[in-house]
Structures are given as structure tokens and as C-alpha cells.
Amino acid sequence: MSDKISTLVNLISPKIGSYGVYANDEFFAPLERMLSETDPIFIPDKYDNHGKWMDGWETRRRRTPGYDWCLIKLGCPGIIKKIEINTKFFTGNYPPYAEIEGIYSEEQPDENDENWKTILDKKSIQGDTVNNFNAENESIFNWVKLKIFPDGGVARLRLWGDVFVDWDKISKKQILELSALNNGGKIISYNNAHYGDVSAILSYGRGKNMGDGWETRRRREPGNDWLIIKLGKKSFLTKAEVDTAFFKGNYPESCSIQAINTDDISKVKDEDWLTIIPKSILHADKVHKFSISTKFHNTEFSHIKLNIFPDGGVSRLRIFGHI
Hints:
With 323 residues, the chain is mainly β. The chain is built from one helix and 22 strands.
């Protein structure tokens, strides 16, 4: 097992369908930039019609009492556990305080709805810094509201937590993409992820470009690269897809998929994994569809291991089955 462990999902990531709905002010920089999965950048000589171009959400200088705020819709309900308020490159224009609230609502909530709950009480934040906090409320939310006091800019907001799926409402016959971030799938270990954002491999849709996927460095030693996924729920698996969209000169020569049922992945040995998709040739920029042998259809699995030989890039991995 690698020491590169990712057990929480960024619940406001566009990769799971989250998006900014409203901001009371976006004069210098739009809300959508704050939700980007890429790290913020600074371009010294870049200006637009409103002034200095900044990579984040930035409001104008407030001349009246109050605060600025924005509303974000989560792509799926979740329980927030860790918070990052990143003010990178905002030095003289960051907000000195921030507060976050959450709500569960089937419709867009009103700013003053009495059911808003505090996720992060009003806290002091620093400029040009990744400000880290623990969530103060682990209820299930699907809307969040960020307040900044009184105004200013935030480069990135990331809310790390667990996707919530009400499995009791899902038919045991329904075929689902059990590896998907929106269904609680998560990457828990990998040996290398030199390029891109590894979680993109479990997001919806096809990749938008070569950076929208999992890509390892060029391997110069024997062996192969791999990652391990915890499925949203222990399930019976039927098929898989490996998509190499946009990977043309750097796709893996081949891949295999293994599976296991365990409550403690840290105790699993290499020989414990069952190969459900044998080593198979891959091609550039293509969706590869695989059927899982019927001999495994009555075996419940909790984790998947994707092996790529020897290295390269995969845009999406999809594992299908039923609970």
C-alpha cells in the first residue's frame, strides 16, 4: 500500500457536479474560479476591464455595512469534515474573516432560511495561505453558503468529506456505477499520480482534455502502476469501462482489474486480490468495455484495484454492478 491516501472527497468539486449558483458580488473575479480543482495561479501582467485578473472569487471594496456571500449547490449530498479556505496570491485583498453554513433542501434555499446550520463559525483567516479547519457540524448537506467579512478574494474553497447515498432507496436489481464519486466511490491509495488530479478518473462524463484524468510518470524500472478504489457500497459486479480519452502517445499498453471484499484494506496482501478482468490490451483515446466473468457475479466486492502496464494515463474508470 502507498502512503498516498485520499479518504475524503472534495464535495464542492465540479467533478461531482457541484457549481456556484449565486454571489452577491463578482466584480473582480467570478465565483466559478473558486471551485476549480487546479491550484491557483498568478499572472503578473494580466488585467481585464475590471482591474487585476485574479484566480479565485473576488468582490469589490465594500463601502456599506454587511458582508459578501455566495451560494454553492453540491453535486450530491455529503457530510463535510475538513475545510480549506485558500487565499493564495490574495495579499492585500483577502477577507479577514469567513464563515460557512449548510442546509439540506430539495429547492434552492433562501439566504435567510431558518434551517441553515453552521459548518464553520466565523473564523479569522490569513492572506496568501491555505487556511485549514475542521467542520463543526457533520449533518448531511446539499447546499453551502460562504460568507466573507467584509469583502475580498478567496482563491479556492474545498470542502472535504464523504458523499451520502441513501442505499435503502435503491433497488438491489438496479445496475449502478459503483465506483463513481457521486455514488460514494473514492480512491484510497495509488503508487503514482504525477500528472493531473487522480480523483478525475471517477468523475462523470468523458475527460475534457489530457489533464482530466490519472496519469503517472514515465516508469524507468520494472513493475507497473496501480490505484485502489473503495466502492460506494459492497456490491456484485458485472462490467467495467476503461477510457483513455485524449491519451494518445501516453496511454498504458495494457491493464488488468482486481477485486476484493474486505473491511480492512490495510491487511490485504497482493495474493489476496482476485483478478476479475485479466490483462488486456488498451488503445489510444478509446472507451474499452469489459464484461466480468459470470463466475464472479455472486461474489460481493468492496474494493477495486486497477493495474496499468507499465505506466501512462487513464481518463475514466467505471465499475458497474448492483448492491
